[in-house]
Amino acid sequence: MPENKNTLHHLTIDFKYDKNYSILNKSTDARTYHNAILLTPGEFSDSVTKAPVVYKSEEIEKSQGKWESNYLNLDHSIDTLNRIGYVVNPRYINNCLMGDLKIYPITENARDTIALIEEGMINKLSIEMMTEDEWDPRECKRFATNLRFLGVAICTFPADIHTRIK
Question: Please, is 67 exposed, middle or buried when counting C-beta atoms within 10 Å of its C-beta (0-12, 13-18, 19+)?
């Protein structure tokens, strides 16, 4: 049986750090879209349950600071390359949950999204959240309470048609 011996491996090419290497200089300047409308009061159906839920102004305002994460995604995707930025500075103003969107142009998806926004081809958002819904038997409707926001998705057909990026 052969004897175990430790072996040292040496690089055959010397590594030299080049501070001008292109990937280190790639722009990470975020494109910021101020005052995006993320959610307005109303009755909306989510894409999963298709059941209408009423989002009251008071509940949205009360929950405006409850963000468990603030990612900006494409089409509610959790794929790595579809996470393109963040929602920052959320606030409730003029009966709207608003925020600033920061998109980092470091992936092709992010750069394409910026181009589509700038050309006016996409301009809608869909909030990602969890709620505790309460049934009101008098109105025969469900009302969202205790909203907790998980992020925002850029999409084509949002439940809340009043959303906008710019």
Answer: middle
Architecture of domain 28-155: Alpha-Beta Barrel (3.20)
Residue 1 per-residue DSSP state: -
Q: For the whole model, what pTM was predicted?
A: 0.81
For residue 4, the model assigns a pLDDT of 56
Measured torsion, CA atoms of residues 142, 40, 152, 93, in degrees rounded to the nearest 10: -130
Q: Where are the domains of the chain?
A: 28-155
* Beta-sheet pairing, 42-45 with 52-55: antiparallel
Whole-number Å distance between alpha carbons of 18 and 120: 40
